[in-house]
Sequence to fold (360 residues):
Amino acid sequence: MLTANVHDLFMSRAIELAKQGRGHVSPNPMVGCVLVHDGDIIGEGYHEEFGGPHAEIMAIRNARKDPVDSIAYINLEPCCITGKTPPCTTALIENGISEVYVGMLDPNPVINGKGVEALEKAGIAVRMGILEEEAIKLNQAFNKWITKGMPWVIAKVAQSADGYMGINSDSSIWLTGDVSRTHAHTLRSEVDAVLIGRQTALIDDPNLTVREVRGENPKRVIMDTNRKLPLTLNLFNDKKADTIVLCSDRRFTLTSTHFCKYLPVKEEKNKLSPIHALKTLAMEGISSVLIEGGQEILKSFIAADVIDQIFIYTAPEKLDNAGLKNPIQLSEEWLVIEQENLGEDTLIIAEKGVECLQEL
Ligand code: AOF
Ligand code: ZN
Fold:
């Protein structure tokens, strides 16, 4: 009989393996699987790419001996459906797995609990909720996307010590240091899409790619109601990642060109609706979005109450009565979950109250 602590250790390894799929599996969840026989790990695997084999199948394939009678540790309930791949429950049953330890139920409504049922029906003992909090956190984007049809939304802002994002909306100024820049690039590499407004696209002419760290480039999304942005912008020419332009559905229909995809979105008070914009992106398979500005976009997303997580990078210098105030106020509904120094800067990460599994 293994001690409880050992179960946590094996699950923790499954979660580490799962993380290796980051940037390659979305909008599928990140899943890892460890097979243990007589206290030894005999096989490991993870979901490596969207459409590819699931973690359980990889672990069975990679096993260095017959997996019969081994225990499987998986951060997500095994699937029992034929999606792009056959059900993992069948593979676990057919390979004689004796016990399955699961991090969290699959929130995917077509699976949710039915995977566990299928295993138990076949006489496999299932233990739920091992490192559940970590398992939920790891797949927070997938959990929201699959249950609500909305992506996980992160707002990122860089500000001066006195709370300004810049001098005015017609100019661009770099406030934070190198460590913050690297950190922000890691953040980019962890989301499916980065979203900016028309003004930021015009003034900064950004690439929105991942450069300071190794990682996948997210899709680039620009809100441009009237499709007026010049096609000379980097985002339309560098071919480094897909570019999506969200525009008004009153004037435009869905169009794809070789330089971008135009997606029509509902208007509300002459602006694109943040909620409809996010739903439209979710339908494109985008499960997480990083909003990188500017001020107008941040204001409209805050007003629509659609932000899940906020990253505030604060530089040590003041800007003394500049014109562009950071519109994000951390009111009491926000919980600061992390605070760290990044060189001379500080980073605060805040989240809305964490949802429990039942609410997903
Ligand atoms: C698992 N193990 O490693 C993953 C699971 O289209 P498919 O076949 O890739 O199935 C996608 C669904 O399977 C996905 O929405 C989620 O519910 C589950 N993901 N399940 O047993 C895995 N990635
Ligand atoms: Zn599966």
Notes: The two ends are 34 Å apart (CA to CA). The mean pLDDT is 94. The pocket of AOF (ligand 1) is lined by residues 28-29, 31, 47, 54-56, 76, 78-79, 83-85, 88, 106, 108, 111 (CB under 6 Å).
